[in-house]
Amino acid sequence: MSLNKKDQRIRRSRQTRVRIATQRVARLTVHRTNLHIYASVIASDGASVLASASTAEKEVREQLGKDKGGNAAAAVIVGKRIAERAKAAGIEKVAFDRSGFAYHGRVKALAEAAREAGLQF
User: Fold this and answer.
1) b/e string for 19-46 if b means 16 or more Cβ within 10 A?
2) CA atoms of 65 and 45, how far apart (whole Å)
3) How many CB atoms lie within 10 A of CB 121?
4) Which residues contact 105 (CB under 8 A, 6 or more apart)?
5) What is the mean pLDDT of residues 26-42?
6) Cα–Cα distance list, 10 to 13, 31, 69, 86, 103 (Å)
7) How far apart are the C-alpha atoms of 113 and 105, rounded to whole Å?
8) pLDDT (mean) for 11-31
9) What backbone phi and psi angles, to 5 degrees, belong to 75?
10) What distance in Å separates the CA atoms of residue 107 and residue 29, rounded to the nearest whole number?
């Protein structure tokens, strides 16, 4: 049985989450679609979302103007917002969970923006 593209990504994400679970640290998880990018900081027990940000938020959409959330500039905005919100929730260190997506393009832009805004991972 061959796996389709989505199943392959989910398989990769499971391996990452098993490794992160042993670290006992909050994780910064990223999900991207063609139109939006979403980021959440999830507690180490996996039970609660401590902070979240996405291009679907009204303030971010207004900031982007006619541009949609499917580009690297939008990912930078979301990266800065998630870092600010995580720090406000008292989280400085996270493990980066790219959810099986390649560390490239929008995912990389979000991660670098979060690092610059003060999150450590």
Assistant:
1) ebeeeebbbbbbbbeeebbbbbbbebee
2) 37
3) 15
4) 72, 75
5) 95
6) 5, 11, 22, 25, 15
7) 12
8) 93
9) -65, -35
10) 10
Give me the DSSP letters along 4-73: -HHHHHHHHHHHHHHHHHHHTS-EEEEEE-SS-EEEEEE-TTSS-EEEEEETTSHHHHHHHTTS-SSSHH
85-97 residue pLDDT tens: 999 999 999 999 9
β-partners of residue 37 are 32
The pTM of this model reads 0.91
Task: Look up residue 101 and give its two tokens.
Answer: 């997506």
Q: What is the pLDDT of residues 46-65, one digit of tens each?
A: 789 999 999 999 999 999 98
Q: How far apart are CA 38 and CA 85, in angstroms?
A: 14
